[in-house]
Description:
By secondary structure, this protein is of the alpha+beta class. The protein has helices at about 10-35, 40-50, 70-80, 85-100, 105-115, 230-270, 280-310, 315-340, 350-360, 365-380, and strands at about 120-125, 140-145, 150-160, 165-170, 180-185, 195-200, 210-220, 225, 270, 275. Strands 1-4-5-8 form a four-stranded mixed beta sheet. A four-stranded antiparallel beta sheet has the order 2-3-7-6, covered by helices on one side. Helix 3 (about 70-80) runs antiparallel to helix 7, helix 6 packs parallel to helix 8 (about 315-340) and helix 8 (about 315-340) runs antiparallel to helix 10 (about 365-380). It is globular, with a radius of gyration of 21 Å.
Amino acid sequence: MGGDFYLTAEQREMRDLVRAMARERIAPLAAHVDEAEAYPDESLKLLGDQGLMGLYIPEAYGGTDMGTLAFCLAVEEIAWACASSATIYLVQYAGGWPIVAAGTEEQKRRYLPRLASGEITAAFSLSEPGAGSDAAAISTRAVRKGDRYVLNGVKLWVSNGSKASVITLFATVDKGRGKGGVTAFLIEPTFPGFAVGKLERKLGIRGSPTAALHLSDCEVPVENRLGEEGEGYKIALSVLDGSRPAVGAEAVGIGQAALDASVAYAKERQQFGQPIGAFQGIQFMLADMAMAVHGSRLLVHHAAALVDRGAPAALESSMAKCFAGDTAMKVATDAVQIFGGYGYTREYPVERFMRDAKITQIYEGTNQIQRVVIARELTRR
């Protein structure tokens, strides 16, 4: 849509580059990535070669430092083409941003240039079997022994966990302190005692691996602690404020793809001697889909712009993620309906959009939790 007057020329140029690349090179691979549950190596290499992996990374460490809004623009375009690739791409931000925000100089030099070039990927590991929405309830233990920490526990739902070379992982140094004991660590898969567990078999985003991680007396050097002991919860929340708009952007991309497919189909599918798009029942569906997608995009861009300005963004980030996720699911479901029986088959991409959309209501904080955050922020003001 044309209402992008508030973007800078640089942001527009970057978005147009990603759009062309995503539609020409990434979209044709998406059905295979989904069907075969194949890791989209080719798409990720493409993004790395174009310097797009480092949009949030400062120039001093090989990135372009374009910020959260630019990153969301890129996520939307990638998600339009392939939600699996978009998930891996935005997890780079969730795993890498904590290093930008809280890392030591040595940590930044060790990881950020390789993340920016696409040489390595990052992951973010907060959830556990007993701690999903309740992030303060994590029970993975970290005990300091001299110049290292020994970690024991199981982490779940780690997007890209089987492929990442650095994982921002949260454990507790003292469960009795609740969120005050949560501490962040930069884990490398080569550390003794680290193992990747089972890979989940998922409804959607099937090319993005989701792994369990097992830490059995896993040895982590003290210099791989991120921030101070007990600062992990604060680090996690600050990451989520920035990454929730990106999940919203992924939802917008899926919703826009479903809308575009529906409009094209409504113009060509003939019934009762005319295109089905000539019937008011279909027209109203398309109008509602378009309004919801456009509204979602504006919410996402507003939240991302607040993050870029360093303004408080918890309320707006949760609103953007929640509204966009609910919209993507509704729009993708309506797209399947407009396609009728064809929409229910794998011959057309709308059934994939519907499966991919569902996760945007669940991860990065369920949409129920987003409503809790929104209400809490409103009553606090």
